[in-house]
Amino acid sequence: FYERYGVGIFAFHKAFRFDGEKIVPVANENLSNMTLDDLIGYDIQKAELVRNTEAFIAGRPANNVLLYGDGGTGKSTSVKALLNEYCDEGLRVIEIFRHQFRDILRISESLRRRNYKFILFIDDLSFEEGEVEYKYLKAVIEGGIETRPDNILIYATSNRRHIVREVWKDRDDMEHKGDIHRSDTVEEKLSLSSRFGVAINYSSPDRKMYHEIVRSLAEKAGLKVDDELIAGADRWEIRHGGKTGRAARQYIDYLLGRA
Length: 259
Hints:
Blueprint: H1 2-5, H2 9-12, E1 15-18, E2 23-25, H3 43-57, E3 65-69, H4 75-86, E4 91-95, H5 104-111, E5 117-122, H6 133-141, E6 152-158, E7 176-177, E8 179-180, H7 184-193, E9 198-202, H8 207-221, H9 227-239, H10 245-258
């Protein structure tokens, strides 16, 4: 039992957070039924995510991962589903919030000799103009003197490909001397996203894929799938943020609540 599952809190839980002092289990692990198959479409994205994660679990070289793209497309869901798929193989996920970036080194050191593979999960990672915490995170991910333990990777989601908000004034220091040299300010802001060796794009589905997601969710919920249900899904997405998996799930929940 101990050889397979380990000991302590990591043996009895799979999802965790950092409370500022120590790593604690997530009290409500409502992830038990969520798998990658529940995420309709995005086969290329899921395959790349699985390939990197399986290499990590097997002890082969693997990269930090940035999942970016439109909201509601399943970026966070993919990470949660990975945890369900591979928790029996020693995968654990610890969610880190932005105000805790300074603690990542301390967290990593406490996990260094653990017989598990840990994903430090940062959801909805982004920085506005004037916020400089990304510089600290950049050094933590890669570039500091202390190397990251082999049993830890960072997976992050963001609606922005380059994470840090860019504005036109960032290019004010661009020089024109025959060739156009890239702005140092722009390079500085792009340097965080370049720390992620794998960047996977999740874009909003087209209408055909959106309908497929709605049909799949409706069938699993035991609802009748007909033209009226699909027409209602189209009306729903117009009022609720566009064609996304999140909108489809909200529509099905609405129908179930009304029944």
